[in-house]
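#struct-pred

JT: dropping the chains for the assembly here, can someone run the whole complex?
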Amino acid sequence: MNKSIQILKTEAKILQANEFYADKVRDMLSKSNTYCVNLISSPGSGKTTLLVNTLHQISDAIACAVIEGDQQTSNDARRISKTGVPVIQVNTLQSCHLNADQILTCLNELPLHDIDLLIIENVGNLVCPASVDLGENEKIVLLSITEGEDKPEKYPLAFSEANAMLLTKIDLLPHLKFDIAQCEKSARSVNGNIEIIQTSSFESNGLDKWIQWLKNRIRAK
Amino acid sequence: MNKSIQILKTEAKILQANEFYADKVRDMLSKSNTYCVNLISSPGSGKTTLLVNTLHQISDAIACAVIEGDQQTSNDARRISKTGVPVIQVNTLQSCHLNADQILTCLNELPLHDIDLLIIENVGNLVCPASVDLGENEKIVLLSITEGEDKPEKYPLAFSEANAMLLTKIDLLPHLKFDIAQCEKSARSVNGNIEIIQTSSFESNGLDKWIQWLKNRIRAK
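RK: done, full complex below.
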């Protein structure tokens, strides 16, 4: 086990108390001037890969930290730690999403006043994390083009709560029946203001656009 | 809207009561000699496509019915209804999984004594549906090879509860970094008895194996 990775194993406290902890998280982030995004998607949509690629590009200029949520394993934290960015792995055990009290516990373990950008990678679940306030500045939803065009309408909350949708694995387009215009229409039908950015772990264009969007959001906070 | 599709919109009753309804479902299925499987996976792993292909192959010989679970839309029920098999769409709204009381409501709408095989397609969510007893005979988990090898260890409950794992979208293997042996090892580390079947919507070999496995289970009940 890499010593730079901390692992927090905790059953989430009950949801009714979540808003209390989310407000505390918001307050701490505000005082330390740390911008916080919460990445939400199905398992395997490419959150960790996007995160690793993003950190490689920005962590020299922007002080980052990462909180990884998974029911079990520290696989993702191990991948993140190779970028040199501080990371805390939260194992949620039976819980299907991160809760704000877990984020608060993590904040107390991080040098928050030295961190400009905190990225939370939520548990792989397109449904439940969307309804849970972690005190973040914004939610970002990822949708892999292998998942089908109609997911925004079938599971609308993640797409209505998010300010941006990253459409991932665009490089697989030649091998799939996937209609990008139809998917974008589906997303915009539940959130007319959503920013849509196409990305691929094998092409840099989309990554550059995503990073620029993220930098603009940090600047505008 | 196709008149053969029924849509049930309901907020799920509280989980504590679930076991009461699951027992009632089990009792009804037993009395009508109907075999029931509950398909669980992330959104977009290919449950509906597998189901359509399966129904085309077996519904002449085996009387089938389908219950479709999604938070919103009747897209999947529309696809199923084209096979001629009776289907009920349950829109779970805020709920992230089907509950047994919803299945019970559906059973009262179906000619159960004429149905040999009832297939439930749960809400697209690899996490939450795994912990909910619907009164089914068995759970089947689907994992698309686009989702990564380590998902069984990261989200173990679905894989420990299921009797079979269908590894879907095998045709995409040449375009991905995916190690099948590693994924099978991950699945077997959480469930030593799990049957693993590779499938693709573009190749018939895996589908035949899955259908034979399913027929054997129905016969052995």
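JT: nice. The mean pLDDT of chain B is 92. Chain B is about 35% helix and 20% strand.
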